[in-house]
Specification:
The protein has 17 helices and 20 strands. Helix 2 crosses helix 3, helix 4 crosses helix 9 and helix 12 crosses helix 14. The longest helix is centred in the C-terminal third of the chain and has 30 residues. Bound molecules: zinc ion (2 copies).
Length: about 575
């Protein structure tokens, strides 16, 4: 989707649930969202990028109880962990908040109040699981039992080991208390429901015009076509945002989590001295809002969320981009079965840019991404080392040794055509949310650079007097132009490595010196200036070998810049 250029763009990335450490499955959403934001800026858009920690719900309360600490302590620990991890990976949010902030409490209460006033919320008495031993109601993950749809063992809010259906409070059969193991009883309790069913027509037409990836739109349309059930939006819990006027109930975590997108925009703009600035994004249709999520939460973002916004009189998101889930060696991610790759372990051995590259280069954004050490090794060795690293190292070393500066010469039509072609593909990739096509276009150009250099054999010309040296310089300048363009196209994916190469090309120094991060896409075709001082290149990435078990055997320890 080509976004309107006159409006600012708000990009959000799904909120990490701060109950454990970051694994590479998380990054499938954050890294592409960050790449998208960096590319939009290069294309001239004004962009705001927000996310934050999802801090409420029963899993955090349960782990706090198990560890003998408060929910705040669990949240504090992992909120910091995620913030640090994103910084290490160069995922640069303009604002990274948390849903237990005062702003989010207020905004959630306001939106729920608005839904009540507009007649979209009603009371209903439910039979709820109650533990006599613990003396309390058992919301969501406090209870375990049998799925009413498929009979598998299920959690209170989801049939996680069977049909993966969302379960409403009171639906689970044969409930047992998760804390003490006792068989639970059913007791009447008053709850509040959101009239999702009355939004079917609205959602059907909203989804017609929704941008983003097809998978999100198609799943959501199918659910609307089948049946929308009203949605219980309260839980009997201490930890969370209180339901207006009820001290004994908090709102369901999936109510206050997406409202975090609004609150984070508010907090960011307030910090920038624009107290009411958020309204342009969420009340006045004055911006384009793009959500990056995983396919597992399409329902929440394409059904619940727009219905809530509509019912409360807010403006609506313009696009939902859903990434496929990550598998490890063909198997579903599982922390309990040890089928997981932690980001911290990864970063101890590899440069963050290599992981950023793999996450977008290995498969189409909407498809599943199957991680294995072997697949990672292949991408790293063949592409980052074999194509990109080889081009930069060979040509920059040659140019540095023989000229010391960007030589004189004319950039050939053939080269400019290839750069323009890659640039068009890069723009199309961003508009289609297909980041694999972006890296493929840039690597294609790098490949062309390698073949061009090889074909022209400039090293022979050096022995042919002054005229030969001149022709040699022109060839070098042409390939340096290609490297400059590759830097512009891959900066969003490999921000640290491309910045180093940019500096090596002499782009940062001199009167026209520029920072790669802030240059526009057009800079790729702007002629590289003769006379710029070149720097001796460093090795970009180390080659390594991986065995099937993931035991990495490297000729040298993989290098990693410690920050
Ligand atoms: Zn109990
Ligand atoms: Zn089931």
């Amino acid at each position: 989707m080509k976004l309107p250029t006159e409006k600012p763009v708000l990009v959000t990335s799904a909120l990490p649930y701060v109950n454990g450490e970051c694994h590479i499955g998380h990054l499938r959403t954050y890294v592409p969202a960050d790449i998208y934001v960096r590319m939009l800026r290069k294309m001239g858009y004004e962009v705001v990028f927000v996310s934050g920690s999802d801090t409420h719900g029963t899993p955090i309360v349960l782990s706090a109880e198990a560890q003998g600490v408060t929910p705040e302590e669990v949240v504090e620990k992992y909120h910091e962990h995620f913030r640090r991890t994103f910084a290490e990976l160069n995922v640069k949010f303009d604002y990274f908040g948390r849903t237990d902030s005062e702003t989010n409490h207020k905004r959630t209460a306001e939106i729920v109040q608005r839904l009540v006033e507009n007649g979209f919320v009603y009371k209903k008495v439910l039979k709820q699981a109650f533990c006599n031993t613990c003396g309390r109601f058992l919301p969501d993950r406090y209870v375990e039992g049998e799925c009413p749809y498929c009979g598998a063992v299920a959690r209170g809010d989801e049939c996680d080991q069977g049909c993966s259906k969302h379960l409403e409070p009171g639906e689970i059969l044969e409930p047992r208390c998760k804390v003490c193991g006792s068989k639970a009883d059913f007791k009447d309790q008053e709850h509040f429901f959101f009239k999702l069913s009355s939004f079917a027509d609205f959602l059907a037409s909203y989804l017609e015009g929704l941008g983003g990836t097809l998978n999100a739109r198609n799943y959501a349309r199918e659910w609307v076509r089948k049946e929308l059930r009203d949605w219980c939006v309260t839980r009997s819990l201490e930890w969370g945002v209180k339901f207006p006027g009820r001290e004994d109930l908090v709102v369901y975590v999936w109510v206050d989590a997406p409202i975090g997108y609004i609150s984070f925009t508010e907090e960011l703009l307030k910090n920038r001295g624009k107290e009411e600035g958020w309204q342009r994004f969420w009340k006045e249709d004055g911006a384009t809002v793009v959500h990056f999520i995983g396919t597992d939460i399409i329902y929440h973002h394409c059904i619940f969320w727009p219905a809530m916004l509509k019912g409360a009189g807010y403006s609506l998101p313009n696009a939902v981009v859903a990434s496929g889930m990550v598998k490890i060696d063909g198997k579903t991610f599982s922390k309990t079965r040890g089928n997981v790759v932690w980001v911290s372990e990864f970063l101890e051995r590899f440069h963050p840019d290599a992981l950023r590259y793999f996450l977008v280069a290995h498969s189409s954004h909407t498809k599943e991404l199957d991680f294995s050490w072997g697949a990672f090794a292949t991408r790293l060795n063949n592409e980052l080392v074999g194509i990109l690293g080889n081009l930069v190292h060979r040509v920059l070393s040659f140019g540095y040794k023989n000229f010391g500066v960007v030589p004189e010469g004319v950039v050939k039509e053939e080269v400019l055509v290839e750069i323009e072609k890659a640039k068009a593909e890069v723009v199309r990739a961003v508009e289609e949310y297909e980041f694999k096509k972006l890296v493929d276009a840039a690597m294609g150009l790098a490949n062309f650079g390698n073949s061009f250099f090889q074909r022209e054999e400039p090293w022979h010309l050096l022995k042919q007097g002054e005229a030969g040296r001149e022709r040699c310089g022109e060839i070098v300048k042409n390939v340096l132009q290609i490297i400059k363009a590759v830097c512009v196209f891959l900066d969003a994916v490999l921000p640290e490595k491309m910045a180093e190469v940019w500096e090596g090309l002499g782009m940062k120094t001199g009167s026209a010196g520029s920072d790669l991060r802030s240059v526009r896409l057009e800079e790729a075709v702007a002629e590289i200036k003769s006379g710029q001082r070149l720097k001796k290149p460093k090795k970009m990435f180390e080659r390594f070998l991986a065995t099937a078990e993931g035991d990495l055997k490297s000729p040298q320890p993989p290098s990693r810049n410690k920050k």
